[in-house]
Design brief:
Blueprint: E1 2-7, H1 11-27, E2 30-37, H2 45-62, E3 69-76, H3 81-91, E4 96-100, H4 106-112, H5 115-122, E5 127-130
Parallel strand pairs: 1-2, 1-4, 2-3, 4-5
Helix pairs in contact: 3-5
């Protein structure tokens, strides 16, 4: 079993990693923690490498068990994060997606879109949301 975790550095995303760890432990699954960033396309290569190292360290710090198999990926987002995450999950046939969600007003969802809503409605597998 493979579990995809969408990560943006928020408290909800950190909580999602912890829930993913419990699922991975229960089902002997492997985690893939993915961070999408629109700004990486304009950054020098050294900053991309640095972002990858930071995500790897954050993941290690969040995961309590050293027995959990995980990998991290920092990707340049070319479209909305929700669309990117769903396309990635579909391409690599993930069994579950775990994402953190925050509170947004109706106006906030209208202006910024709802990546979580897109993932929930379009994912090719079950989605677990964590607050």
């Amino acid at each position: 079993m493979n579990i995809l975790v969408g990560f943006d550095g928020s408290a909800a995303a950190c909580a999602a990693v912890r829930v993913a760890e419990r699922h991975a432990s229960a089902w002997d699954a492997e985690l893939e923690i993915v961070q999408l960033d629109h700004q990486l396309a304009e950054r020098p290569c050294a900053e991309i490498v640095s972002a990858k190292k930071r995500l790897q360290k954050v993941a290690r710090d969040l995961l309590e068990s050293e027995e959990i198999r995980f990998r991290t990926r920092v990707m340049v987002a070319t479209q909305d994060a929700g669309r990117e995450l769903v396309a990635y999950a579909r391409k690599y046939a993930f069994d579950e997606i775990i994402i953190g969600i925050g509170k947004h007003s109706r106006f906030g969802k209208y202006v910024f879109g709802s990546n979580a809503q897109y993932v929930i409605l379009n994912a090719p597998c079950p989605v677990v949301t964590v607050r």
